[in-house]
Amino acid sequence: MRIPRQTVLAAGAVLAAALIGSSSMPSATSEPSATSDVAVSVTPERLNVVGLPCFPGSLNLTMTNTGTMDRYADLTLEPTGPLQLSRTLFSSWLPAVDPDQPVSAPVEVRVPRDTAPGSYQLTAEVDRKQVTVPVTVDPLPPKGPGDNLALGEQATASSTHGNFTLCGAVDGDKDSEHWDTLTGWNDGTRAAFPDTYDVALATPATVNRVELYTLDSARYPARLNGLRDWDVQVKSAGTWQTVAQVRGNTAGHVTTTFAPTQAEAVRILCLDGNDHTYSRIVELEAYGS
Ligand SMILES: [Ca+2]
């Protein structure tokens, strides 16, 4: 069974919807060729990010040719301070069609873990016209006793299905009804097991409990689509060891406890799914005692 994905667009007001008719806007540097018939929008109109490796902020860039001439356009992105962007250029051919045809592209925004919380911004520019997006860097979430040590930490997997995101299983959202908004990991090797999903902890920590949320929604119940068999492993002094085994699962949420173990990373070794097709994890959490 293939589970369709819906396009994810963050809801938000369209920012600076019209950079149109710029010939009427005085500019010391403008020239006739700088006249813009390209409408630019960035959604959401402001962004919050946090310095966790698997917790990027995401923006959607859109350009629309509102004029009557086919043209090519370059949208350039300029970050300030510590902001790191997955792209700084979005170029596209923009045919003049009626109705107007928007062209969109995503950009991920990250900051290093040690970034000071505060206010930053990035600027999107087309035809010398700018749209500014405020970016707030939030404090890191606590990672002490009782906190989810896996939240937002670097995930790696044996494979990831092209319709899903690697970091979806450590994004803090464990609601299977949000599966279509990429809040989960789905491996990319159909009907082939095992698959692995690892999360590297920020610093080695004692772990004695893992909470695994596999796909279990009204449309895709766990007994049909969830993870069935897996081993829980922790990496200690560079070596993976199995600390628990789960077999024949049909539940959406499984708590696994084991002897406190010093862990650098946590792994789910996926051995089978209830549809024998894919491994699906909506959220993986790790806790110490
Ligand atoms: Ca999730």
TrEMBL record:
Residues 138-289 form the F5/8 type C domain. SUPFAM superfamilies: Galactose-binding domain-like. Residues 1-28 form the signal peptide. The keyword Signal applies. Pfam families: F5_F8_type_C_2. Keywords: Signal. This is F5/8 type C domain-containing protein. It comes from Kribbella sp. HUAS MG21.
